[in-house]
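Question: does this match?
>
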Amino acid sequence: MSSTIKVAIATPLDPGLRHLLTEVDPSVDLLVDDALLPPQRFPGDHEGDPAFRRTRKQQAVFDSLLSEADIFYGIPDTRPAALAPAVRANPGLRWVQTMAAGGGAQVKAADLTAEELERVLFTTSAGVHGRPLAEFAILGVLAGAKDLPRLQSQQAARHWSDRWAMKQVHEQTVLVVGLGGIGKETARLAKALGATVLGTKRQPGPVDHVDEVHPLSALPELVGRADAIVFTLPGTTATDGLYGAELIAATKPGAVIVNVGRGTVINEPSLIDGLQSGHLASAFLDVVAVEPLPTESPLWAMPQVVIAPHTAALSPHEDRRIAELFATNLRRLIDGKELLNVVDTQHFY
């Protein structure tokens, strides 16, 4: 790179946060034209207003701006289809920061060549969404233990039933499938409630607040021990449909399922069968395999299911936290240090 580091703002970023990037070093030069970016509708809205359209001339100016940059702050318009042409039009591009924690899936979807994946470094926003998603995960664990679906049903029917003994999280075992940033925070919160915490990790080793760490291959045994199972896994070829009929059959009867990773990790027809049969008690889903969830999906009408429209990760501070993460990595880049959250372009996470 030249003495000036040109950073193209490829997705919306509040002007009030841009100083976080420029203050990293005097060499940083932002390439940005707000007329070329869709307005944000809410904090963390990296796609921007879907009604926004560039004129042909505006698109040409936007493409020209991207072609001059050393770094992209965001995948252009957060669309994988826009990433490949932008990479190919800019032989000097060295780094792309994705807005998503699971940005590896977007990079994979761009269908870049091996040479392009070697030339350009991709990093994700992993860690930014850990606490919000962990709180949703714990919501599911607590709601499952306290029979939230039954409470809602009885309230809707104005029915005052006999009393019953609710489950206690401090007496339960919570399995966290995937001990990345989200999983570690989920484990911390579950442990704070007194639960026994099990976890899986690609390379098992001690993890704070986790009583037992196992490889993913141990899932058939682990699901049989867990009162609640929290999935935080990224969407990869290896995780696609991971939690299917066989693992559901092996799951402890009455278990609660929570997914804050990627919807493709769970085989939805098998999940539906497990819920309808009563083998699984309830499910709390921030993500589903196809988003938006099709209106004909049985999940919509199931009283033991709570669906969040992939919104649990959002917080009013998301944009600032991603900008701060980017600034940290930008400093590391200038100092010749290894960047954080680099995408593994073999497994794409």
The longest strand covers residues 280-285. Residues 171 and 195 are 6 Å apart (CA to CA).
